[in-house]
Amino acid sequence: MAFDKNKVPNFNIVPATYGDIVISSQGEESPLFLLHKNGKQLMALNTKTNREVKELYSSYDLAYGDVLVSGLGFGILPLWLASKPEVVSIKVIEFSQEIIDLFLQSNEVPSNLTIELSDISTYASNDKYDCILLDHFQDHLPQSEWHINLTSIKNISQNVPNHDLIWGWSLEHMFLSKKFGITSEQLFTKPIDLRQFDLYSRWLEFIHDDVKVITLPSLSKHKLTEYVYTYFNYITVKELNDYVSSL
C-alpha cells in the first residue's frame, strides 16, 4: 500500500466559535483551516497539500480490527479509518466536549465510529483492541513539544493493556530528531536528502533503546522508509518514490 489521496474520505470543516474552541479559515476559497483553544493553535489542515493527512498515513496503513484512537480534532484519522475495509470499529477518546460538538455538527458519523469524552492520559480499560493509535498531545506543554512523547506511549500501553499494536502520530518526526538531530526546519522548510542516512538500523536502535514498548509494530526497511518519506512529503518526488519501491 502507498498513500492514495483518492482513498481519503471527504470531511467537513466549518469555521465556528464554541466555548474556548475556534475553527477558522483564511477565506472561503482557502484550503487552510486552523483550530485554536484559548488562543493557542492546536492543529492545522491544508486540504490542498494534504500534508497533515500524510503525517497520519502510517496510522491508517497499520490499522485493522478494533481500533482505539486518542484525539478527535477535525476527525481526519477517525473518518479515514472508518472507510478502511480492514477496520471493524473505532473508538475515539477526546477530552474536549466543544471539539466533539463541532465535529458532530459538521459530519455524519459512520456506524463503526464512536466518540467518548475522556482524557487519554488517565483513561484505563481492559477492553480488547487490535490497535491503539495516538493522535493527541498535551496542550499545556510548550508548542515545540506538541508531539506524542515516549512516556505517553508507554503509559497508555500499560493503561490499556489488551492490545496487539500501538502507534502514534509524530513517531517518524521524533525518530529523526532523536537519532539524527534533524530539525523541523530541515524537514519542512529546507528539506535535506534523507537517503544519506541509514534509517533502518537507527530505527531498530530507537525501538530497542528509547521506546521500549513491545507492542510497537515490527517494520520492514521498506515500510519504515515509506512511512518516514510520506510523513515528510518526500514520497511525492518520483525519484524518491522509485527509491522506496526498490527497497
Low-confidence stretches: 140-147
Distance between the termini: 14 Å
Q: Tell me the number of helical segments per DSSP (H or I, 4 or more residues long).
A: 10
**How much helix, percentage-wise, in residues?**
25-40%
**Elements, N to C (H/E):** EEEEHHEHEHEEHEHHHHH
Assembly type of the chains comes to: single chain
Tell me what portion of residues adopts beta-strand conformation: 15-25%
Main sheet strand line-up: 7-6-5-8-9
β-strand number: 9
The coarse overall form would be globular
Mean pLDDT: 89
Task: Give a quick account of the main beta sheet: strands, pairing sense, barrel closure.
Answer: 5 strands, parallel
Rg, nearest Å: 18 Å
Broad structural category: alpha/beta
